[in-house]
Design goal:
The complex is a heterodimer of chains A (540) and B (305).
Chain A lengths: L1 H7 L2 H33 L3 H16 L2 H11 L9 H27 L2 H9 L4 H31 L11 H12 L2 H30 L6 H8 L4 H15 L4 H4 L17 H10 L2 E12 L2 E12 L3 E5 L6 H8 L7 E6 L2 E2 L11 H11 L1 E4 L11 H13 L3 H14 L15 H13 L5 E5 L7 H18 L2 E5 L3 H7 L2 E6 L2 E7 H6 L4 H17 L1
Parallel strand pairs in A: 3-8, 3-9, 6-7, 7-8
Antiparallel strand pairs in A: 1-2, 1-4, 4-5, 9-10
Chain B lengths: L15 H13 L19 H7 L7 E6 L2 E2 L3 E4 L2 E6 L1 H13 L2 E6 L5 H6 L5 E8 L8 E15 L17 E5 L4 H6 L1 H7 L6 E5 L2 H9 L5 E5 H10 L4 E17 L4 H16 L2 H8 L12 E2 L3
Parallel strand pairs in B: 1-5, 1-6, 8-9
Antiparallel strand pairs in B: 2-3, 3-4, 6-11, 7-10, 7-11, 7-12
Classes of the chains: A alpha/beta (540), B alpha/beta (305).
Chain lengths: 540, 305
């Protein structure tokens, strides 16, 4: 026992720890850099890069680290690369860690909700900004545990550097044991040293996780999580909070929607007069002979559609009729086979020679022209508060200052009735609230056109009306140009100037909303409207 | 008593920054990596001055000696000051360095990696109780300096009655290091044992001396055949648990390995070793490390055919 403590404090072994940490740091640091590059290559648009990455992973994940160490140390000199033992061991560990870290990075990037990426694109973010502001912050949070594992494994693997004569802890322990035959005390001491090192990594991991935990926004809450005996008090605070907040939630205050939304007084407008003014307005969207197919299956066929500034168009049709695809084509989130789409007179996504632009250039054009989009599944950025969901894109895409962006965000949250939820995370809000934030986010840069893709379809029935209310006001009060795909017939009748009915990728009927929706001429339209009406009656 | 420092040659210029950081950290835990220079050898033969004049390119250099420092008596850490390697081989290398005017640093590797390290250019010389065989001469040139006497290490009381590398080993398990010359000798017993109607001997391969000794202590192996002085050292460390069954002679010599393509360096080491023996320095060092002086052997080259 006395010997054990002697070795624990022996500077010879303690110095070995420094080499152990040095090799680990080189391996992890190098592995992280290479891992980022490899993950980027594998996720890139170019198949050759992905292939190279695969081959690299097969070789370096498929061979033992000890061989890689010996290779870097003894074989590289034969081609003129003579590394020192520490360099060779660090290089080998980095080469070995890289494919593992690359897979951790890639897996966590893929796991970030695809809808948020599309929402970022729709807001005019370039691919770099989407990666930096939307994907990376969420991926990094979720990869911390796996990276912690990897760090522990790298630390233990650094002991293999002993085979290439690096004076690290394991090598020093074995040499010492050979000299004085005092195996057990020495190995227990070095084992305890390794435990202390891996324990330190585990502690760092916990601290990092707590610092990145979005549910612990204040320093007090983070401290409480790190000190388990204080956790109880926090739980009580958590338990109380929702109960106090509940009566204030507008979602619960809104009357349940059991029948088709009743006509609201605010929306009653002089249709004839409105149609007359719209007829003189310039064109906001001009779609001609649009055609698109997926794997040989036609999704859109000879679509011609004109939307004037200030006009509200309801896009109706059964699921799979091409409504969403059409909306996505308008802001070039989707490509198409033939035909043209002009938004405020410009062809979005093509240069003067009609060649498709890079994703980056398309993003900039989207931001410049101003096409906002609201999605069925809200697609709010999960790591940002309601306010940041709105203010963030204003800063990153439109160059707003922080204070200007915050001011605008608060103003819009106030408009959608969520001023009191500014600091809430999306996952702490109801679907209706999330969709209202999403609408505010789309409106923030003052778009010329707003595309709404089934904005109420993912909502519980009692939450539909609060969202429709907001959209209705946009049409009436702001005179915003909107194209809405929806199944809310009575809402469409109230708010839309024109209804367009899509079936199997083609427009089968279009005309003034109240006419098409009340007295459809096309048999498919009539059948579809009948089904929706029956369902509404059944629900009532 | 001559002590030798370990100068860590592992950190190159490229790592200057890291190196500085390591130094600082090392100092913080109470260790200075660079120790005071080694004191000059007890006496450097007179003729060495002439050799330094003949081989001026070595003067002032620092050469790397690859060792498997798990063999107390030949090369191991100094238990009292683990920042140093000590042993007969270490002293001999320092004496050669002093004679030719170069300094020596050490690179600890497994036994099997001694010659590959030399071949890869990661070391300049190997003085680590390695037997100069024709087979190994394919990887390096050898200059011999000791005759080989092997001892047969067994558990106290020699329960398997092993008395050499012979039929007494049939059915027993021998611990050896990867790359040891004893390995093929034990393997060759397989046919003889079978012919005698006995089970073949088993072999466990380890990568250092200490692991082989542990294999006997833990009962995993029955015997370990290696240099007699090493075996004696093990018995001295565990007098209640181990004993030397017998000593055997092997038709080999212990040699200094140098790279195959560097004949001038080989000639210089050869000449220096001859002077060290002539002056009586080698005998003096052997006495210091309790090696029987009659084990000394005049230098001769062992080269590949």
């Amino acid at each position: 026992m006395e010997l054990f403590f002697h070795y624990l404090s022996q500077s010879y072994l303690l110095t070995g720890i420094i080499y152990t940490l040095l090799i680990t740091a080189l391996g992890l640091g190098g592995g992280l850099v290479m891992g980022v590059v490899l993950a980027g290559m594998q996720l890139s648009r170019f198949p050759v890069l992905a292939l190279i990455t695969r081959a690299y992973a097969i070789i370096f994940r498929g061979t033992p680290l000890i061989l890689q160490m010996i290779f870097c140390y003894n074989a590289l000199p034969m081609i003129g690369v003579k590394l020192t033992a520490v360099e060779a061991a660090g290089l080998a560990l980095a080469l070995n860690e890289a494919p593992f870290i690359a897979e951790i990075i890639r897996g966590n990037i893929i796991a970030v909700d695809r809808g948020q990426v599309i929402a970022g694109q729709a807001l005019g973010m370039t691919p770099d900004v989407v990666m930096l502001r939307v994907v990376a912050p969420q991926a990094i949070r979720s990869m911390v545990p796996a990276l912690g594992n990897e760090a522990v494994s790298a630390l233990k693997n650094s002991s293999l550097a002993s085979v290439v004569s690096v004076q690290e802890l394991t090598l020093r322990s074995t040499q010492l044991a050979s000299a004085n035959f005092d195996f057990f005390s020495i190995f227990f001491a070095s084992g305890l040293m390794y435990l202390a090192l891996t324990g330190a990594i585990a502690a760092i991991q916990i601290v990092v996780e707590v610092l990145l935990d979005l549910d612990l926004p204040t320093p007090e809450a983070r401290l409480a999580r790190l000190l388990p005996w204080r956790r109880r008090t926090v739980e009580i605070v958590y338990a109380k909070a929702p109960r106090l907040a509940a009566p204030d939630l507008p979602a619960l205050a809104a009357p349940p929607l059991s029948a088709p939304a009743p006509a609201r007084a605010g929306f009653s407008i002089d249709r004839e007069k409105r149609l007359a003014t719209l007829a003189d307005r310039p064109l906001a969207v001009e779609i001609s002979a649009l055609r698109k197919s997926y794997d040989g299956k036609t999704v859109l066929e000879s679509i011609d559609l004109v939307v004037r500034v200030g006009e509200v168009v309801a896009l109706l049709g059964p699921s799979g009729s091409g409504k969403s695809t059409l909306l996505r084509c308008i802001n070039h989130l989707e490509t198409w086979d033939s035909g043209a789409i002009k938004v405020t007179g410009r062809e979005l996504g093509f240069d003067a020679q009609n060649r498709p632009l890079s994703p980056r250039a398309i993003a900039n054009e989207r931001a410049a022209i101003g096409v906002g989009m609201v999605f069925q599944n809200f697609n709010l950025f999960g790591h940002l508060t309601a306010k940041e969901n709105i203010a963030g894109p204003l800063r990153w895409v439109h160059g707003f200052s922080r204070s200007d962006a915050d001011l605008r965000a608060r103003e819009l949250l106030d408009r959608v009735g969520l001023a009191n939820r500014a600091e809430a995370l999306p996952r702490h809000m109801s679907g209706g609230q999330q969709q209202r934030v999403a609408i505010a986010r789309a409106l923030a840069p003052n778009p010329t056109i707003l595309l709404l893709d089934e904005p109420t379809s993912a909502l519980d029935p009692e939450l539909v009306s609060e969202v429709l209310e907001v959209i209705g006001r946009l049409a009436v009060e702001d005179g915003l140009t909107m194209i809405i795909s929806t199944h809310q017939i009575s809402f469409a009748k109230d708010v839309a100037d024109r209804a367009v009915f899509l079936d199997a990728g083609s427009i089968v009927e279009e005309g003034p909303a109240d006419v098409v929706l009340s007295r459809p001429r096309n048999a498919r339209t009539a059948q579809f409207l009948q089904i929706l009406t029956d369902e509404a009656v059944a629900r009532a | 008593m001559k002590s030798v420092q370990i100068r860590h040659a592992v950190l190159g210029k490229a790592w200057l920054g890291i190196c500085v950081a390591v130094q600082i950290a090392a100092a913080a835990v109470g260790v200075s990596m660079i120790l005071s220079p080694a004191p000059a050898a007890a006496k450097t033969p007179e003729a060495c001055a002439a050799l330094q004049a003949k081989y001026p390119s070595l003067k002032g250099k620092t050469l790397v000696n690859a060792v498997n420092p798990h063999t107390p008596g030949y090369e191991a850490l100094d238990p009292n000051d683990p920042s140093k390697y000590v042993g007969f081989d270490i002293d001999l290398g320092e004496a050669i360095g002093d004679c030719l005017g170069f300094k020596v640093t050490y690179k600890p590797v497994t036994f099997a990696a001694l010659l590959t390290t030399l071949e890869a250019g990661q070391a300049d010389i190997v003085i680590s109780d390695i037997y100069a065989t024709k087979q190994r001469a394919k990887a390096a040139d050898f200059i011999t300096y000791l005759k080989v006497y092997d001892g047969v290490l067994v558990a106290k009381g020699n329960p398997k009655k092993i008395d050499g590398i012979n039929l007494s080993m049939c059915g027993a398990t021998a611990a050896e290091n990867t790359g040891f010359v004893e390995v093929p000798l034990v393997q060759a017993l397989e046919e003889k044992c079978k012919a005698a109607g006995k089970p073949a001997p088993g072999i466990q391969l380890y990568d250092n001396n200490a692991n082989c000794i542990q294999a006997i202590l833990s009962g995993r192996a029955d015997t370990y055949v290696n240099d007699v002085n090493t075996v004696d050292g093990a018995v001295k460390a565990y007098p209640d648990k181990l004993e030397k069954a017998t000593a055997v002679t092997l038709p080999y010599s212990v040699g200094i390995a140098v790279p195959r393509n560097k004949t001038e360096f080989r000639d210089a080491v050869f000449a220096a070793l001859a002077e060290i023996q002539k002056s009586g320095l080698q005998a003096e060092l052997m006495k210091k490390w309790n090696l029987p002086v009659d084990q000394m052997e005049a230098p001769k080259l062992v080269l590949a055919d």
